[in-house]
Amino acid sequence: MDPRLYRYAKSGDICFLKQLLNDNPSLLYQLTPRKNTALHIAVEFGDSNVVAEIYSRCRSLLTQQNLAGDTPLHVAARVGCFSIFNDLVREILSMSQEDFRNEKDGMFETLRMGNRGKNTVLHEAVRNGHIKLVQFLLTMDPKLASIENDAGESPLYLAARGGMFEILNQILKSTASSAHGGSDGRTALHAAVVEKHFDIVEGLLRFKQQLIKETDHQGRTPLFYAASLGQHRTVKRLLELDTSIAYVLDKEGRSPIHVAASKGHTSVIREIIRHCPDSGEICDLYGQNALHMAIIGGRAHVVRYILETPELECLINQPDVIGNTPLHLATIERKTWIMYYLMWDGRVHQSSMYKCGQAAFDIDRSIKESSFASPRKLQNIIPDIWGHLGTRDSYLDIKISPRAEQEEANAVQTYMQMGQTLLMVTTLITTVTFAAAFTMPGGITMM
Question: Matching Gene3D superfamilies, A to Z (predicted)?
Fold first, then answer.
C-alpha cells in the first residue's frame, strides 16, 4: 500500500487524503501485507470522515475481507465505534440493485458473514463487550444469536464466559432460539460455572433451565464443575432444580461427589448428600467411592467427615475392583494419618483382604503394632512402616499437596495432645487407686 494512503487513512487527514485520491483513484485498491484495505485501516483508527470518504469512492470495499477474513464491519464491531458501524450498515442497506438482488437479503448476508474463525460481527461485539452494538445487531437480525463459530462458540457462550450479564440478558430476551454452545462441547452454563459468575448462572437458569443436564465432551455437567471448584452456592442452586444430575457420571465414571471428595470440598459433599442421600454409593470405573477419592487426594478432613456421616457409613469397608478397601488404599498410598483415622474407627475391618490375599497388616507387620500404640510412640513407628514399604512411586504416582501435608501435621499435633491428656488422666487414676489401697478404713485421727 502506498505509504501516503496508509498514513492519511490512519491519521484522519481528510484534506490530504482527498487530494491523493483525486490524483490517483486507483490507490484505493492497494492492500497491506495482511490484505487490509484503506477502509479497514480508517475504521480501525476511528475517523468517521475518512471512513465516509473512502467508501463513497469505492463501495465494494464495504464487504471486502482481509487475510483474517474480517470485513470492515468486523473491525468496527471489534473497535466498538457505534457511529462508524451504523454508517457502514446504512451504506450497505442503500446499495443499489446491481450490488445485491435483494437489499434485505444482502444486508443479512453481510452481517452473518464469518471471518476465518467463522466469527460474525455479533461475536466480535460480544467478545469486546460493546452492548450498544449488540442491541443494534440483535434488532437488525436476531438470527445472529444462533450462529456458532469454528470453535463451537455462540455469542451467548462468550457473554457467559466473560461475565457480561447485560449482554447475556439482551441475547436471551431477543430470541428464544439463541445458540448456547461453546468450545469442547461446553454450554454457556458450563462457562458461567467455571468462571464463577453466579449472576450469569441465575440468568441462564431463568431462560434455559434445560442446560443443567447438558454434558461436555468429557461427559461433565455444570454440577460436576461446580463440585470440583467448591462452589457450594451453585451446587445448592442446581440441585434445587434437578437432583438427577448428581448421578451423572463423566467418561471416567466419576460423579460430582467423587470430584468434590478428591478436591477436599466438604461443604459440597454435605450439600449433595442432603439432596441425594444415596449418591454416596456411586462408584467410578475402578469401583472406587468418594472415600477412596478422598484418600487418594490426601483429604484428611473429608475422611473425617465421611466417618462421621451416617449416610456414608457404607463406604468405610467397601473394596474397589481389585479389592482395596479404604484402609488398604490409605496404607498403599502412604496417607499416614488417614490410615490411623481408619484404624482407630471400630467399624473398619482391619483384617479385610484384597485380591492378592493380603490384609492391610500384611502390607507391613509394623502397622499392626501401630494400631495399638499410643500417640506418643507414633513418631517412632511411622518411619519404620514407610521404610519397609519403599518409595511411594512404586505404587501410584500420586503427589501429596502441601495442604494435605499440613493437615497431617495438624492431625499429629492433635493426637499427641490427646495422648498427653490421656496419660495424665491415667496417672491420676493410678495415684488415687494406690492411695486408696494403703489408706486404713475409717482413717486415722491425729491427737
Answer: Ankyrin repeat-containing domain (1.25.40.20)
- Summarize pLDDT for 408-434 with one digit per residue, the tens: 556 556 555 555 555 554 555 555 455
Residues 366, 385 contacting (CB under 8 angstroms) = yes
Per-residue pLDDT tens digits for 16-74:
999 999 999 999 999 999 999 999 999 999 889 999 999 999 999 999 999 999 999 99
Of 310, 319, 335, the closest CA to residue 283 belongs to: 319
Listed as own residue / partner, the contacts of 270-277 with beta carbons closer than 8 Å and 24 or more positions apart are 270/305, 271/232, 271/235, 271/236, 271/239, 272/227, 272/235, 272/239, 272/246, 273/309, 273/311, 273/312, 275/239, 275/240, 275/243, 275/246, 276/239, 276/243, 276/246, 276/247, 277/311
> In this structure, are residues 407 and 301 in contact, taking their beta carbons and an 8 Å threshold?
yes
- As a whole number of angstroms, the distance between CA 71 and CA 61 comes to 8
What is the pTM assigned to this prediction? 0.78
Contact between residue 97 and residue 105 where contact means Cβ atoms under 8 Å apart: no
Q: Assign 112 to helix, strand or coil.
A: coil
- Cell of residue 83, nine digits: 457511529
Distance CA 277, CA 340 (A): 27
Residue 187: strand pairing partners: 181
Burial string for 96-125 (b: 16+ CB within 10 Å, else e) reads: eeeebeeeeebbeebbebbbeebbbbbbbb
| First-last CA distance in the chain | 124
- Per residue in 301-325, is it b (16+ CB within 10 Å) or e — as a string? ebbbbbbebeebeebbbbbbeeebb
Task: List the one residue out of 289, 360, 371 whose CA is nearest residue 330.
Answer: 360
Asked whether 284 and 296 are in contact (CB, 8 A), the reply is: no
How many Å apart are CA 327 and CA 325, to the nearest integer?
5
Pairwise CA distance, residues 189 & 214, whole Å: 9
Model confidence pLDDT, tens digit, residues 149-208 = 999 999 999 999 999 999 999 999 999 899 999 999 999 999 999 999 999 999 999 999
Which distant-in-sequence residues (6+ apart) come within 8 Å of 246 by Cβ? 223, 239, 255, 256, 257, 272, 275, 276, 279
Q: Which of 333, 332, 334, 299 is nearest to 406 (CA)?
A: 299
In a 10 Å sphere around its CB, with 0-12 CB exposed, 13-18 middle and 19+ buried, how is residue 134 labelled? Answer: buried
The full DSSP string for 367-389 is HHHHTTS-GGGHHHHHHHHHHHH
Instruction: Record the cell numbers describing residue 272, joined without a space.
Output: 449433595
